[in-house]
Structures are given as structure tokens and as C-alpha cells.
Amino acid sequence: MHRDDPQWTPPPKDPDEPVPLRRILALFRPYRGRLTLVGLLVGASSLVSVASPFLLREILDVAIPGRRTGLLTLLALGMIATAITTSVFGVLQTLVSTTVGQRVMHDLRTAVYAKLQRMPLAFFTRTRTGEVQSRIANDIGGMQATVTSTATSLVSNLTSVIATVCAMVALDWRLTVVSLLLLPLFVWISRRVGKERKKITSTRQKQMAAMSAMVTESLSVSGILLGRTMGRADSLTQSFADESERLVGLEVRANMAGRWRMATIGIVMAAMPALIYWSAGLVLQLGGPAFSLGTLVAFVSLQQGLLRPTVSLLSTGVQMQTSLALFQRIFEYLDLPVAITEPAEPVRIAAPRGEIRFENVMFRYDPDAAPTLDGIDLTVPAGGSLAVVGPTGSGKSTLSYLVPRLYDVTGGRVTLDGTDVRDLDFDTLARAVGVVSQETYLFHASVADNLRFAKPDATDDEIERAARAAQIHDHIAALPDGYDTLVGERGHRFSGGEKQRLAIARTILRDPPVLVLDEATSALDTHTEHAVQQAIDELSAGRTTLTIAHRLSTVRDADQIVVLDAGRIAERGTHDELLAAEGRYAALVRRDAHLTPAGEQIMAP
């Protein structure tokens, strides 16, 4: 079925489509036991806390009027014990709930990162790096309060409200009705505020992603060099200021959305004690039953105790609706289709020989575009070498991407030792195919750590042997910290040729039987190219080698040379055969012919 999979394209997404609540709740499923413990602590804390007003009523109606010192002491101690118990339960509840929330945050971050590791190369060519970073940092970070405390706050406040209302009814149902008359209005207001904040939050996160992308691009080493050499530092600063200014407005709107309406709820709830006293007095004047002082004070105490969890519950509802926008952005990434997948029963090759075949291969980047490669039939025997040349845009690099499955073919197949590369497990393919490209990437770590990325368990002797083979050991040894020297952001401490040789040393350390060289020397000067070419010759010895060449001086000794033109094979043969044919290759050679500074022609026929 994967034979006909199209290349990756961003899926259409309805921004207003709600996130299923069950999907959010599923994130907490692995922690059911701890959440149950949180629920028990919350329930126990709520039940204990509502005991205080009843103890207070007994103090005011029984112990003090009856001058019962012993009972007064016991009731006072009971109120103190209630406060201590509630506080202890609260601390334990916070510890467990925060741990669960942080574990859920960890699971989300890891899931998004793992998903991005599986995305095809096309995804990253169409997505700004800062946007990806913003999803992991800003969006998931913005959910921290919701994930770590909202669920617990919801359960805690809901339990408190239910327990308090039950206690109020037990004291006097008429006063309870008066206290709860405006509750439906409060719920309606909070839902309106929540929807408003959700929309603003979605816009704010997009703005934060845009600003993060700008920072990532303009404050990288390459971005700084480009900005300063082009005299655009002030312009970039102004652009960043404009982006930041837009974020300021969104942040203010997000924080002020519904603030007056929520404040009105707080004012009304705070004024409820006065309404209770007024209602009690009115009932007494109308000839109704009198309320004891203890009952009134206890009821007002409960009613005031109802204020905090009710307002918090309404605010939690607003916060949850706001967080739905963040969950939606995270789930967008988790739901991205993965075009390049491992088969259900992958083939594993213990010791690949390295034979590569292209069988009637066709490839297109876009289903509606003309094919980039069409009808490619090639065989590179194990240990053999193939060079691919041609004008810019002829499909050379695309051909090299198909061997390590950076892209999948859209027609035909590519095989390793007779097995379709799409049927191989990822580990086998990664061990079998090594890639050295023109764009060498080095981590901001030591030289040794960069080399060990290819083989984490490599010894110091193995690292040194690989560096010697790549003609870079002497340079590393001359550095102040040797192999412990930091290479700098993207390896800017090293020249282009030195970085290429480090990349070659890294590949030598991995020791793959198949080597793909994608224009590995095209950006180097002649002297540096010669040094790097020596390292490449050392690396290529005994390996199946596919060389994508811009400079023809690097391919004349290949077993077979293929000339691509508009995605098709225009010529094939050895260097001498193609020169004798006086076709496209010969024309490329004449165009590429040049002299070294010493006057020696390096591209002689």
C-alpha cells in the first residue's frame, strides 16, 4: 500500500473544530492510580473543611451561652484540627497532582518531538524552524497551569461546592435558595468569557510562533552574518519590535477579556452576606421563624466558603476553554500524516553487501507537478561507484535522497541487495547508507561528541583513527582542547573544508557499506577540495559509492557516470567513453575545465 503513497502535504485543518474532551482526558489515563489518590484527598479535605461552621454554630449557640468551658475547649481544638488536616491534605494533593501534570507535559513534549522525528524531509522544507520550536516550548509550556493544576482544581472546587451546598441546606434551605439564585447567570457569563479568550489565545500563540521563528532565523550565526553584512541590523530590530508590539496587544486582550464580567461576579458573591442578613431580618419581620445567631454566623461562614471555590470553578472553566486552543495546536502536530513509515514486518539485513538498484524510478515532489525523476534504471554493484552529473535542476540530489529514504519514490522502486528500501527496517537502512552532503551540520558540542553521534560507544582510539583517515586529526590535535574543543554554533569555529572532513570522519566511524556523496566538495576552493577529496577517497575505498557531482573533477574515476537532464538519463558510460561520444558529458567537461593557480589543468580529457 505504501507503494502509492503521495509525498507529504500539510493536512487541511478547521481552526474552529473542537478538540474532543475524551482525547484530553486520555492523556491522564496512565496515571489513574495517582488521580484516584488526588480525588480521595480532595474529597477528604472538602468534607473536613465544612465541619468548621458546624463547630462554630455549637460554640455560639451552646458552649458560650451555657458557659461550658470543657465543650468550648473541645470545639475550639476541633476547629484547629480541621484547619491543620485541611492544610496537610492540600499539600499532599498539590504534590501528587503537580507530579501527574508534569508527567503529562513530559509525555506531550516527547510525543510531539518523536512525531517530528518521523516526519519526511518535505515537512521541514515547508515549515519554519521557529514554528516547530514554538509548538514544543510555547504551546506546551502555556498548557502547564491547565495540565498541572486545572484538573485538580476542578475536582477540588466542585467537591467543595457540593459539600458546602449540602451543609448550607442542612442549616437552612431557604437561605440556601437565596444564595444560589444568581448562580446560573454566573455560569453563562463564564462560558461567554471562555469562548472569547479561546479565540484570542489561538491568535496569540500564532503570533508567538511567528516571533519565535524570526528570533531563530535572525539570531543564528548565519542570520547575524547576513544581517550585518547587508546592513539590515536596524531593519531586523524594527521588524522584531513590530512583531513584539502586536504580541503586546494580544497579551493585553487575553488578560482583559471578560475581566469586568468576572469582577462583577466576585463583587456580587462578596455582597451575598449582606443579602443573607437582610433576608433573615425580612423573614423575621414577616412573622417567619427566627434564626439563631449561631445558625446565621455558620451559614454566612459557609456562604463565604462557597465564594472562593465557586469563583475558582468558573475561572477554571474559562481557563479550560482557553487551553483548548493550545491543545488544538499540539494535536495538529500529533495528527500530521507520516508518509515514510516502517512496514509492519520489516526486513532486516545483518550484513548488507551494498548493491543498489534503481528500477524504473519515478519521483515527483507535488502530485500535480511534472516528475523530477522519470524512468531511472541504474545498477551499482556492491563495492562499485556511480557518479551522477547534470545541470542544476536535473534531479541529481533528488536521486541521492531516495537511497536513504529521505523521500519515497512515487513509481518504480529502489533496492538494497535486492530488497526494496521501503521494506527494510529503519535501523538496517541507517546502518547501511551513509550520507555526506554539501550542508554539513555540527552540533554545539565538542569535536568528540560530534563524532560519537555516529557511534555513541566509539572509543577514543576509534575516533582518532577516523579523524586520521579523514585528514583532520592533526588540525584537531592542534586545538587548545583537542577533541574536547567546542565546535561552536553550527560548527562556525571550523572552515568549510574542516567541517566537511569532520563529517567524513563521522561517516567513517559509522562504517556504512553504501556511501552517498551529495556535492560534498562543490562549495570548496581548489586547495581545500583536494584535501577533502583525499579524505573521500579514503572513505570510499571498498564501499558502494553514489556521487552527486557539481565539479566534474571528482568523478572521472567512477566505474559508471550518468548524465541526467530534466529528470531522465541522457547518457551513461565511463569517463573516456562519454568523452569519445562528444555528447552532453563532453560539453559539461569543456564548460567545467579550468586551471589551478599553478597553471596545471585538473580536468584534462
From TrEMBL:
Tagged with keyword Transmembrane: yes
Protein localization: Cell inner membrane
Ranges where the ABC transporter domain occurs: 356-591
Membrane topology designation: Multi-pass membrane protein
Pfam families for the chain: ABC_membrane, ABC_tran
Any one Gene Ontology cellular component term annotated for this protein: plasma membrane
Name of the protein this chain belongs to: ABC transporter ATP-binding protein
